[in-house]
Structures are given as C-alpha cells and as structure tokens.
Amino acid sequence: MNRYGIVVVGYNRIDSLQRLFDSLERAHYDEDVDLIISLDNSGNNQVFNYANSFEWIHGNKKLILAEEKLGLRNHVLQCGNYINRFNFDAVIVLEDDLYVSSDFFNYAKQAIDFYGEDERIAGISLYQHLWNVNADRPFLPVISKYDTFFMQYAQSWGQIWTKNQWNLFYQWYINQEYKNVDLNKIPDNLLKWPESSWLKFHIQYCIAKNKFFVYPYTALSTNFADAGTHYASNTNKMQVPILTSTQKKYTFVNFEDSNVIYDAYFENLLLAREIGLNKNEVTVDIYGMKKENARYLITMDKLPFKVLKSFGLKMRPQDMNVIYNIEGDDIFLYDTLIQENKVNNKKNDIKLTRWMYDTRAVVLVKQNLMKILIFEIKQKLRSLKSKFIRK
Description:
Shape: globular
Radius of gyration: 24 Å
Distance between the termini: 69 Å
Order of helices and strands: EHEHEHHEEHEEEEEHHHEEEHEEEHEHHH
Number of domains: 3
CATH topology of the largest domain: Spore Coat Polysaccharide Biosynthesis Protein SpsA, Chain A
CATH architecture of the largest domain: Alpha-Beta Complex
Strand order of the largest sheet: 3-2-1-4-10-6-11-9-13
Number of helices: 13
CATH superfamily of the largest domain: Spore Coat Polysaccharide Biosynthesis Protein SpsA, Chain A
Largest sheet: 9 strands, mixed
Helix content: 25-40%
CATH class of the largest domain: Alpha Beta
C-alpha cells in the first residue's frame, strides 16, 4: 500500500494559503494522508501562526519553516526531497495560490497506481493547460476516449511525483546535466524564464531524457496566479475549469497505446503518422516556434518551399484540420528540400486568420459593438441617476 504526502509550498501570502486550505478541506479522502506545510522564511509571523493553527483531520500535519530565505527554486526542490525525508511513496505538491478539485486525491491515487512504474513518465499533473505559453496562443489537445494524455512539459501548478520519478530528476539536476542540453530543442520562451524558476529545469529534463508528464483532460487544480515571485499583480489568465465530481473512476491509457502526445512546444508528436510520413522526417510546428526543421515541415508560416499539401484552420483543436484533411490555405505541409523563391501572397493573411480563429467571437463582437456601447452608457446613466436620487 502506497504512502502519500501532500506538500503545500508557502511564503508570505496568507490569503492564498487560506484559500488553498479551504479547497483541501472540501476534498474527499478515503484514507489518511499526511500534510506537510513548508514555508520559506519571509519574516511574516502571521503566515506561520495561521499555518500552525490550521487543523488537519485527515492524517498527520508537519509544519516546516526555513531558517533563512531559500527562494522559490530552492524551496520547491527542497519540497520535492520531502519524499525521501518522510519516506513517502508519492507526493502531491501544491503551491499556495492553487485550488484543488474535491476529487484530486482520488485522481492522484489512481494515476499513481497506473503510471507510477512507467519509466517514460516524469510526473503526473493535476492542472490542464488551455494556453500555449511559448506561442502565447490558446491550446487544446486532441480529445480521446481516455481521461488523460501526455505532454513533454513538466508541471508546477499541481504536480505528483513518485519517489523514483523525483529522484531521477533531482539526480540529473544536482549533477548539472542541464548544462549539456541541446538549446536548439528548448523553447526560447522557456530559456528566458528567471533564475527563480525550478520548472524550466524539469522541462529540460523531460526533453533531454524523452520523458513525459501525464495530463488530465479535465483539470484537478487551477491557478489563481496571485501576486508573488513571478507575477507583479494578480491575474486570472491561468484559471482553468476543474472537476467538481467526487470518487470518479478514471480511464487511463498506456503511453505506447496513446494517440495524444504533445512535445514541449505543445505540438502533436503523432501528426506525422496521421498523414503517412515517418515522424523522424517531419517537424510539426503549427505554432511556428521551433528552431530546427526536418525535411518535411507542417506550419502556418508562409515559407519559400514547395507546398505538398495545405489545410484550413476551421476545426478545433488546430491539429484536427490536418488529421481530417480539411481544405484550405492556412496550414502547410512543406518539402524543405525543394525551394520555391516566390511565396504565394494571395493566400489569406496568416496573422489575421490566427487572430480570428483564436478570438472566436470577434465577428459577433464587431457586429454588436454599438449595442454593447449603448448598453454600457445606459448603465452608467442609471448609476448616476440613482446616486443623485439618494442625495
């Protein structure tokens, strides 16, 4: 029987911590689970006193306060190592500005049982990305009949590690093997992340070792992105819908049987197979962010190469346009060994196409812009009239 630990990572945000604890108390637990509250040293006694007074009725509680400020990167790495310090078989690590689904623990246990021994898996995510942070565009995965899919992208907004998964990564990190990573395979956006980020190393580890995170189609955690180390002010751009049911029976798929696998650029690794080409000869770069190209290239960019096939940008996710061979001139399959000096400028402007595709309701908003403006003016006048009457 596995021994699980929940590790909460905190610093100086008492409101965030209270909100996270509220979600933990709402969750369902069918067995005891230890709670480790790890606080970096901020000099904020209020946070420590609150965490110390918090009652955890689902198992043992341990409060750890750093003797001196560690910084986010070192603090999270220390939290990962609690898996060894407290002899857990697996840990669920939650930063303080997260909120968990009532079924997160049930999902974690089932996912650990299914994926815990798979050497290709670097960790299990509670969160589900709806935004490609590399391209700053929306992201949706291809839907399957299972509850999970795979991405070569580690997670920090609700992650699960088994002891072996964590120790393999940490050994790679302390050996500074990240210094030998081929930077051409790393997204530029990730390389610009601050030194306070531990996640950028974990993503590089996944790329270097060809490992993947398990992702749920429906998130079991969401991120409030409160002002802190990485955000100057509060933002809701990382919010995603979370599962509200409890004690669900999840349907998992083995990695080798999955039809939904994405790389660190949020690109579909199996798209080449869908069009009958060898994946080693194809670069899938629909978002247009990669630095290296194979002979065949799938992208939305207009390039001076021979177009073997073009596809529309109609279906969602965008991969489906290639999978179902949707007609159009928005996504191109190039043979980069054959030059065509003249790019066809008669095709739709790609930037406008992407914008229309991403914003969805832009046409509707344009058609009703005057109605919206009139409504807002009326609301303002009503408010002013109400204030005048009260006076």
